[in-house]
Amino acid sequence: MSDILSTGDLRRSFIQGETEIHVLRGVNLHVGPGEIVALLGPSGSGKSTLLQAVGLLEGGFEGSIRIRGEEAAKLNNDGRTRVRRDSLGFVYQFHHLLPDFTAVENVVLPQLIHGATNEDAKTRAESLLSSLGLGHRLTHRPSQLSGGEQQRVAVARALANRPALVLADEPTGNLDEATADVVLAEFLRLVREEGSAALVATHNERLAAKMDRVVRLHDGVLG
Hints:
Blueprint lengths: L4 E12 L2 E13 L4 E5 L6 H8 L7 E6 L2 E2 L5 H11 E4 L11 H12 L3 H14 L15 H13 L5 E5 L7 H18 L2 E6 L2 H4 L4 E6 L2 E2 L1
Parallel strand pairs: 3-8, 3-9, 6-7, 7-8
Antiparallel strand pairs: 1-2, 1-4, 4-5, 9-10
Helix pairs in contact: 3-4, 3-5, 5-6
GO molecular function: ATP binding; ATP hydrolysis activity; transmembrane transporter activity
Keywords: ATP-binding, Cell inner membrane, Cell membrane, Hydrolase, Lipoprotein, Membrane, Nucleotide-binding, Transport
Protein name: Lipoprotein-releasing system ATP-binding protein
């Protein structure tokens, strides 16, 4: 089966004053079906920029980005939105949950946008949250949840529409070490159970070692 994600000679530069800064310098990356890949690198190495590129979250990139075999780099806004909706899930360092919605409502909403019925979306949300140990917290709002619980809700939300690829940017970076270990273990377990692939940016060697494969980004180049 072909790669879920592949990039070819992916480049990104910024102009700062009179200086051109090369953030990505020709990245060639492949993620296979069901594969969980750690994107390891120090702060400023270009990890977030690479995730923004393959997540089709902004333009200005040169090169190829293929998602499930479709060349997505040159799609118009509607096309990029379609690929994000149908194929991608996102988890960030900060959970970005909707504060006025309960845990289950935060996981239901993206499914409704995707076209699910309210009944099916709620059943799916409750199942995901329960599998993450939050069955007793379904009606709690984010402010009533701990940091680890909030991030578990964000994980459930990312997987709600059964994405082919989950992109995670330092998903445990805002948690203490013990909580980070638990949340990452739950994230990896659920991604594997759902059959999704994942690209997880981190600067933590210990956490990266728990994934299927590690690629290292340094000065905008994979090594």
